[in-house]
TrEMBL record:
<dbReference type="Pfam" id="PF07686">
    <property type="entry name" value="V-set"/>
</dbReference>
<keyword id="KW-1133">Transmembrane helix</keyword>
<keyword id="KW-0325">Glycoprotein</keyword>
<dbReference type="InterPro" id="IPR042414">
    <property type="entry name" value="CD8B"/>
</dbReference>
<keyword id="KW-0393">Immunoglobulin domain</keyword>
<feature type="transmembrane region" description="Helical">
    <location>
        <begin position="155"/>
        <end position="175"/>
    </location>
</feature>
<keyword id="KW-0391">Immunity</keyword>
<dbReference type="GO" id="GO:0015026">
    <property type="term" value="F:coreceptor activity"/>
</dbReference>
<dbReference type="InterPro" id="IPR007110">
    <property type="entry name" value="Ig-like_dom"/>
</dbReference>
<keyword id="KW-1064">Adaptive immunity</keyword>
<dbReference type="InterPro" id="IPR013106">
    <property type="entry name" value="Ig_V-set"/>
</dbReference>
<dbReference type="InterPro" id="IPR036179">
    <property type="entry name" value="Ig-like_dom_sf"/>
</dbReference>
<dbReference type="InterPro" id="IPR013783">
    <property type="entry name" value="Ig-like_fold"/>
</dbReference>
<protein>
    <submittedName>
        <fullName>T-cell surface glycoprotein CD8 beta chain</fullName>
    </submittedName>
</protein>
<dbReference type="GO" id="GO:0050776">
    <property type="term" value="P:regulation of immune response"/>
</dbReference>
<dbReference type="InterPro" id="IPR003599">
    <property type="entry name" value="Ig_sub"/>
</dbReference>
<keyword id="KW-0472">Membrane</keyword>
Length: 192
């Protein structure tokens, strides 16, 4: 069985990386273990896949059809901090990565780190840029959308949505005036 546990933690919860680059997914253990397992959940393929196991000596055992050139694990001398290194990133690498340890014939999973691979990383916001709105905005993008080629980034659709909203709000007074004018005409016609 699988279960999440406080014996290991994964942070950050989400990583955005660029196609053909590399990234690393950290995992912290509360105490030393014989080694760490790594799994990937693919939302698109609906599969939970065993990637690799790395023991205390750094010897790795890979899952079926897992490239040794693509995945590697690096650990510290304390054997409580590990990171999964993934190179040559592609859209097929999108998914949630879990580090895991074995204890009492159970696999204890970390909280998972969602990896999104995109062709172009969004630009960081400029410090001098004035906010569009004083209200805080929360943007949620789906990982599937991020994985597709040509998907709109928040840098494109947030200003676009704001522009559409302003346009719609500016039409309200015009529509109200037209409604009043139409009503006056209707009343004038019916009085005659």
């Amino acid at each position: 069985g699988f279960c999440t546990n406080l014996l290991l933690s994964q942070s950050p919860g989400h990583i955005l990386a660029q196609t053909n680059n590399k990234t690393e997914i950290p995992c912290e253990l509360k105490k030393e273990h014989a080694g760490v397992y790594w799994y990937r959940w693919s939302q698109e393929r609906q599969t939970f896949e065993f990637l690799m196991f790395s023991n205390l000596l750094g010897k790795a055992t890979y899952g079926t059809n897992i490239s040794q050139d693509k995945f590697s694990v690096h650990g510290t001398h304390s054997h409580t901090s590990y990171s999964l290194h993934i190179s040559h990133l592609h859209a097929s690498d999108n998914g949630t990565y879990y580090c895991s340890i074995s204890q009492s014939s159970q696999l204890l999973l970390g909280s998972g780190t969602r990896l999104g691979v995109v062709d172009v990383l969004p630009l960081p916001p400029k410090a001098t840029q004035a906010p569009l709105s004083k209200k805080p905005m929360r943007c949620v993008t789906k990982s599937k959308a991020a994985g597709k080629k040509g998907a709109c980034s928040p840098l494109v659709w947030v200003p676009l949505a704001t522009g559409v909203l302003i346009l719609l709000l500016s039409l309200v007074p015009t529509a109200h005036r037209l409604h009043r004018l139409r009503r006056r005409l209707w009343l004038r016609i019916h009085r005659q």
